[in-house]
Amino acid sequence: MSALDGLDERQREAASVLRGPVAVLAGAGTGKTRVITHRIAHGVETGAYTPSRVMAVTFTAKAAGELRGRLRALSVQGVAARTFHAAALSQLGFFWPQLAGVPAPAIVDNKVRLLAQAADMLRLRPDTATLRDLASAIEWRKVSMLSIEEAAQRGRSVGRFDENQVAELSRAYETLKDDRHQLDFEDVLLACAGMLEAEPRVAAAVHEQYRHFTVDEFQDVSPLQHRLLELWVGDRGDLCVVGDASQTIYSFAGADQHYLLDFERRHVDATVVRLETNYRSAAGVLGVANALMKGRPGALELVPAAAPASADPPAISVPDPVVVAFDDDAEEARGVASAIAARIADGVPPEEIAVLYRAHSQSGALLQALAAAGVAATVLGGKRFFDLPEVRQAVQALRAAAVAPQQHSFLGAVRDVLRGLGYTDDPPEAGGALRDAWEARRAVLRLAEDAPTGTTMRGFADDLFARAKDQHEPVLRTVTLSTLHAAKGLEWPHVYLVGCSEGLLPISYATGFDAIDEERRLAYVGVTRAARALTMTWSRDADRAGRRPSRFLAEIGRGSLREIPPSAMIGARRG
Known about the structure:
single chain, Arc Repressor Mutant, subunit A, 4 domains
């Protein structure tokens, strides 16, 4: 078999170009990770790539773990799949002792705490929220490659601190950090870039080690990351970038979509491939997404993948995307919860349903309404699964049980261990910590139920450790609640996008063309998480000043969104 087998025409084109600058403009659900991994595998199987000389750069450790897992499945070992920070930290750790004769500086473990100490030195008393915003301002300045003075000239204040006070705090923070011989997260990239620029032998060593680069989510690179990438690549052209300008949602953190939009101009010999066949979403969902982004820079026209003519069973009909208006936020939460409870009663697994929103503050009413409807829910963005106390406890207990004589089968032994930790066959009521702990232990048991025949307790415990390392987390059988930012890269068959009103989406503090455009891209990310059914809701909030529907609903238009009353929500779930 070839690594190109199973790819569609455009995917195969992207995976076949192994040399020279390549830009893969990959819309939501078009198989970009598949293209990245199959392209690398194709390069290895043809002899064009040596795995150890390939670096695949991602933005999260989880995405890097997924890339490594997919490459292993394609029998490719030895590729460096890392985040920008992990790659830079590795190079600093290796070269710093050679250059300075001492180990590389330690990494600041808590930027907010260090900032608080710097503020004390200046006799300033910012609260915790302001300290977090100051930390974000420092991060933005560094990834934007601005000096403290240049950032002050931009006139960015933080809370009650004007730009001059922010600059003063920044200098105190840097002094304190230098005195302690520490680097923060952004310094890692700055120091690595500075080392490559100042030390030709270091640059030569890195260029010798890595020849072929692939960068995922290229629309999210910051000026600092882009500069570091340029230094890694050098004067060679073996660079493949993959991204979608319509999914640029981190501009506030320094992301600059123009590196993707201008790639062809910067690299006149670049091959550009557009992936627009969507394998995730129904045609109606794609109609909403396309209407929302029509005419925007870099927008791709998503088309649904054609179902095989001999599909058996025949394709299941899907409902049209709908929009529902409620009188107030509480009614919106209750209406969504009732519709979700009805879907689950119809046989839809709860883990196939997500409720997405713009701000964390919107989750409280939704959690309360779902609990009242008897629906268990998990808020995305909390602790990672393998960091949950009940999961860590279970893994340790399973590992300890592996050395004891087994009285039961493997599955029975796992069940006994979990029961000893408090697991019961019947779940507690939804909406509390007991139910959250139960769902976590139940997920561990499901992993055991799905384990291959012949799995031992020790092998199962080792597999859990490997999963934790790669952040390969199981799916909890609960409804997911998530901000739009946290939902990026995920998908669910049924999505409720709530709070589609002015002041929430777009958020009230988004002013100016660029800020509104970012909010539009956030809405696009939310819409394209839906595979089969999409419901968008908004509240008039009649008890206050009243709200208007989001301008994005008007941009989408009734040609793509069908408006229905709240009373029809449960009926609209069918199909």
